[in-house]
Amino acid sequence: MNSPTRMSRFRAWARHNLFRTWPDGIVTVVFGSLAIYVALRLLNYVFVTGRWDVVRRNLKLLLVGRFPDDELYKVVIAVAVSALWGGVLAGLVIGRQRRAGTYIEQPKTPAKHIGLLVARFWPILAGVAVLLALSESFGPWIATLVIAASALAGRAVGLTVAGPVSSAPLPVKAILGLVLAAVPLVAVVALANVTGWDDWGGFMVNLTIAAAAIVLCFPLGVLLALGRASKLPLLKATCTAYIEIFRGSPLFVLLLLANNALEFFVPRSIAPGVVVRAVIVFTLFTAAYVAEIVRGGLQSVPPGQDEAAKALGLSPARTTLLITMPQALRNVIPAQIGQFISLFKDVTLAGTAMGVFDLLNVGRGITKQPEFAGLRLDVESLAFVALLFWVGSYTMSRESQRLEKKLGVGT
Amino acid sequence: MTAAATSHPVRPPFWRDVRVLRWVFQIVVLAVVALVLAWLYSNYRTNVARTKIPTNFKFLDRPANFEIPGNGMSQTAPVRNALVQGLLNTLRVAVAGLILATVLGTLIGIGRLSKNAVIRALCTVYVETIRNIPLLLLLLFANLGLVLQVLPRLTNAWQPLGIAVFSNRGIAIPWYVGSGWTLLAIITIGIIGARLVALWRQNAFDRTGAPARTGLWSAAVFVATTAIGWIAFGYHVTTPEVAERITIGGMRLDPSFFALLFALVVYTASHIAEIVRGSIQAVDRGQDEAAQALAFSGFQRLWFVVLPQAFRIAVPPLGNQYLNLIKNSSLGAAISYFELTNVTQISVANSSPPVPAFALALAVYLVISLVVSGLVNVWNRRLALVTR
């Protein structure tokens, strides 16, 4: 007779979720009004009282450090190439999923498609919107358009070549894989040639250090995990000692040690600068944590898998490489991403411990510039820095949750 | 296959014998590791010989040449004392942080599963915001934003109810007057007494079936012991007051201590909340429903049925968070809180040899980590389900 209208459904929801009992209602009113008050104060701060000039004037410094102005287009090209690369990878993955029948088709209407994309990537969109709102020239607008376009183009290319690539012979696939893996590396190294590593700064250096350490720590971590899980006593003891020593040490002290004492341990001629030094410390440190995560994954693989592989006559190396390791790694993808998120956040420590000119260091420095000194702009500057880190980590953690659901793994 | 063939297998040549290969492989790996370490060590020897920097720990006895405000350490005291004070400051912030972070994290973790949508939303926003921001940034925010901008000057300090003083010179809270060690002894005796009484009550319950009421009995014994000791040794509490440019009485917490504690607690609580939430969700729903069927109230269901089982699941990851908090307290160096790392760093700047000094600090952190993870393991074993 009376189908539930939107209003009555809302009332039922509110009854159930806000005013279940008397005390519940009081809690709702008290905390609700508190939340509204804080939100209003925040909005007021962001749009009215906040003095964002300090961020606006230093936007370039915050993002790319002291990178020379007339070379900036190279940064944009490098990011665009990386975006293209990411797009191609995404396209290849989607193509593969479509053929395997595991791809969940998106709704066909463009409006719904855009809605889904916004729901998925709103933190990044919000971050880009803030950056564009703070920018004082057209440069960032053009850069954003170029990067977004190359990502979409990459995705389209990936989708079209997905079919031919899947039917290509193995050597062709291997060569393509190597080329794909080399692209971001070449882009970054080409950029590093413009200025030395140690003149890098801003968010760019955070992203580079984190990415380099993630790529490097992973193989080391897997080897350590295999060593610790092996039945060979000497190997096991060595790997366990490494893992426990690094897990028991504060990262900050390790960075200080590398900053103060590395010259004692390696000849001065090959002692690297701060950025490379930071990458080494983060790699060695995170590898110990990755090892423990992978070890957990190895333990989660049912022993029957290993036994079945043995029964089929596979050698120990093949058993690990083809049977146990793929299953172990798949099980621990969420934990790995969690570890990489903390690595991304921990790069800020290199700024304080080693003087890397990273985003947080820039954020602290700009409030001391002559025109802003004494104005107490720390909160404004830190808020902007926090936003960039939040966008990065939150996106990674959301994507990790998506993947977790898709793979049906996780804690 | 004949019996003769199995009883006299042909030994493979040694280069194809798995037992030999295993050891060869291990020895090669070990040799490479040893070579790398030896190379590093020989570099170290040549470099210290060239720069004449000492490699022993005699620097510990030299005068420190710097002061640690708030700890009453003079410049002429040896480095050893400074490091001990630094370690004490580390432990101070770590212990306070562990307790507060556990309480806040548990509350927020429970809040994320609340039936009330407002509480749920607030807790979710808290977790998803704080968890995704670097700790160092939170720490700087606490130091530069909260302490230096929000807290008032001492001349117009907040003094809620006259029992505490909040100002940008620090926070002063009521504190006891008397010997800390004696108080620790009194509390230890109280805990032992409470534990004994609890055992006695449990025993009585097992024999006679009389209500055990262990919680009530042990609490009473603990309170009584502490109260008697408190009065007998003449302890009393002073509340802080503002006098000219300082606060008198009570205990003054340094602004940097407050900032570090705030950041560590807020950050770690966001991680603990996720652990608690996951653990509560991992407890079988039937447990909660059964308690509901037995007419337990909401609090009783949580406190007596769900949380004890959830903590059984939560202890190992919780232990990791505790270790993280202790190690993260080294970030105090970034805001000049005089904990172990900062004191080590300052003493290195005051011409202590860097390698032995940092090695010592790392060794201390390793020992703390081992002790804490040992305690967590004991706790875990006590909570673990006893199965066949």
Structure description:
The complex is a heterodimer of chains A (411) and B (388). Chain A is mostly helical. Chain A folds into 3 domains: 49 residues; 127 residues, no CATH class; 213 residues, MetI-like fold (Orthogonal Bundle). Helices cover 80% and strands 0% of the residues of chain A. Chain A is built from 17 helices and no strands. In chain A, helix 9 crosses helix 12. The radius of gyration of chain A is 25 Å and the shape is globular. The two termini of chain A are 46 Å apart. In chain B, helix 3 packs across helix 8, helix 5 crosses helix 8 and helix 6 runs antiparallel to helix 7. In chain B, the strands form 3 sheets. A 3-stranded antiparallel β-sheet of chain B has the order 1-2-7. Chain B has 3 domains: 50 residues; 241 residues, MetI-like fold, CATH 1.10.3720; 64 residues. The radius of gyration of chain B is 28 Å and the shape is globular. With 388 residues, chain B is mainly α. Chain B is built from 12 helices and 7 strands. The interface between A and B is large, with 55 and 55 residues.
